[in-house]
Predict the structure.
Amino acid sequence: MPYEHQKIEQKWQKYWDENQTFATTDDTSKPKYYAMDMFPYPSGQGLHVGHPEGYTATDIMSRFKRANGFNVLHPMGWDAFGLPAEQYAMKTGHNPADFTSQNVDHFREQIKSLGLSYDWNREINTTDPAYYKWTQWIFEKLYEKGLAYESNMMVNWDPIDRVVLANEEVIDGKSERSGNKVERKALRQWVLKITAYADRLVDDLDDLDWPEAIKEQQRHWIGRSKGAAVFFNVADSNKKIEVYTTRPDTLFGASYMVLAPEHQLVDEIATEQQKQAISDYRAIISAKTDLERTDLNKDKTGVFTGAYGVNPINGEKLPIWIADYVLASYGTGAIMAVPAHDDRDFEFAQKFALEIKPVIAGGDVTKEPYTGDGLHINSDFLDGLDKSTAINTTIAWLETQESGHAQTNFRLRDWIFSRQRYWGEPIPVIHWEDGTTTLVPEKELPLLLPHATELRPSGSGESPLANLTDWLEITREDGVKGRRETNTMPQWAGSSWYFLRYIDPRNAEKIADLDKLKYWMNVDLYVGGAEHAVLHLLYARFWHKFLYDLGVVPTKEPFQKLVNQGMILGSNHEKMSKSKGNVVNPDDIVTAFGADTLRVYEMFMGPLTQNKPWSEEGITGSRRWLDRVWRLLIDDEGQVREAVSTYNSGDLDKIYHQTVKKVTEDLENMHFNTAISQMMVFINEAYKSEALPINYMTGFVQLLAPIAPHLAEELWVRLGNKASISYVTWPQYDQAQLVDDTVEIIFQVNGKVRGKATVARDLDKDSMIAAAKLDDNVQNFIAEKTIRKVIAIPGKFVNIVVG
RNA sequence: GCCGUUGUGGCGGAAUUGGCAGACGCGCUGGACUCAAAAUCCAGUGGUGGCAACACCGUGUGGGUUCGACUCCCACCGACGGCACCA
């Protein structure tokens, strides 16, 4: 009887469902393990083969931990708000909710066919009002704490369609959909003050078990830098310019100053004869896209304002320029330029023939800027000091003069939290005609997204919600009229706290019960793609810290261990895409080979974290191996083979215990590919053995169960055990079975292998050396040579050094 | 340019603390079974030379440390991901 994957997989999926095998309880007597996947956006395309990779990894860990006595929380849900549904709805005249719910059903069905051990009772959906009630609640708390505010921010604006576009909708400066040229436009936006958490977001990374690359990306994104604020008076004026510098020690080398073209003081200090040049320059700048201002333009441009600043340290007058290489959004939008020791200032100074004064010894600043360390020169009281001493000395001096102070800056900016979209969580705010703004009262949450079949752009830059007058307009008891906020939240909102809701998904009173949170948090394993390295993970960490400060959650960080699965590439080693015609559909694989084969193959392809190309031959190889496992134990009539019995010839003793050890350790470390290869070795050995001891066979089936659960359940029952295998205690290995009395040692001459011998495990050094010298081939290489040295390690090797 | 990851047979990939490079799988070759084929089972398979024993070469490139280097150090090259004038 052959291995019939379809029958077996359906049978066990039904069994798990009916028996609620994977329903999680809050049994706090057991240690807990919380394994979570990044929940998917349920797109119309359905699952691709990349999804099952990460899902299988967390599923293996979940099943492995269950067998090791852990109480496992392994949930799944849907990140179901998002742009594609809205675009599709606009095109077809449907409501995004209906379309999304069909997609969710399709995704759920596909995911269930993979045999993943989720607790489906905890399924969540970010578009469910019972869920987004709490997303709105968190927003209200942020607002109450002063961490949510309104501000005019620049957005991508399609002037013909009159809609706001997301960055990813803008391709080469044009709208992806309409092809219209996109402009920058200031619009009122809701903004979250993530910068208030910048220090903690950097510092707390240190304790997380995350890939170093991701931590580095977050550190860089936050971009904390330490330096000084320095105040420069403007000559012949009462104005002051504050600059930010990381090199206050080079203050004696400052030879000019630069303001960002948008800097507020520009108009106030510019002289009459420069005003025309300035406005011309600004016109050119505003026509440039961000890309042109950064990437494409390495050539420095700028205009003199006609004004001078006074260097607080020596009273020198410094010309004040405007230039777009100084960014309005970073620091104070103003710098002191030290061309001798900064690449950008050097380039600018050369172009406009500004003075270049060296203040640090080393390098030749007539040729290139010197940015290294060195002793200070031409710097009065700083002369002879090294960089860090000079920095501290200067800051101390500035503080006594009240001309500056130490200052920390961040690259991180506040988070633009609103979207001019329909398909998102409504922001629970009302703008009243008397000019006040209030939150929707907590007891009225959730503020429901009104049902709409015809989504049309409002034309004003507001979301389609602005068209829905019934919902939009509201009158207070005292007759004051109000208008609801038409902005909705970004897709990041619902995903910033979903890991909390899985813990207590139906709680109507709060996000989740604190005792349950105390038991389950943090997430022990979080697996997903590296494309979320910064934004999602940073936003989730920010919200979590905020909730921690509120006392809602008991931990400072949400995700203790993070793993990024690699991408599955097409068989041509390129990223899978429709246009390249290299897309593999997991449904086809499940039908033709089975979910277990897909799971084994995806885990066997290579390390979880690396990119790997799909291979048609590879998948058949994995299937072949599962067939081989089946045939080892089950004969043509569907009976357990006679060789499987309580008789143990001893052939498999060593390999069995080795396999238990290796598989256990590999699973613990998520080295699934080598765990599978060890199981293959075991099966190869078993095929050569006459006797198949029943306890070894059941032990093997247990090792296989996390990876190929349907097949393992089936074999487990056929071998005479009671269903199900999921909570049966993991097999143990016997250390004593792993060591042999004899061991093969190698003989080297000058580090090259020249012979081998099998000797007693505890053979002493001298006997090993003697044996080595007797070896024929070794003699060929040491004959007539002087032995300089002999290295011997018992149980391993002898190395004879001749010369 | 900067930060991070990575480079091993025809292919995917193995190799605790430096100690037999290439486990396992794919592919390929041969054998068994079969009228034949498929499937299956068994064996072989880094390159060069040799009937063989065995020798030489071999982990991106060039140096170095060491009795011994895929592994450690220095310099360089290529691929992938991220950031991009952040003062």
About this structure: The two ends of chain A are 65 Å apart (CA to CA). The mean pLDDT of chain A is 91. Residues 50-67 of chain A form the longest helix (18 residues). The first strand of chain A starts at residue 32 and ends at 37.
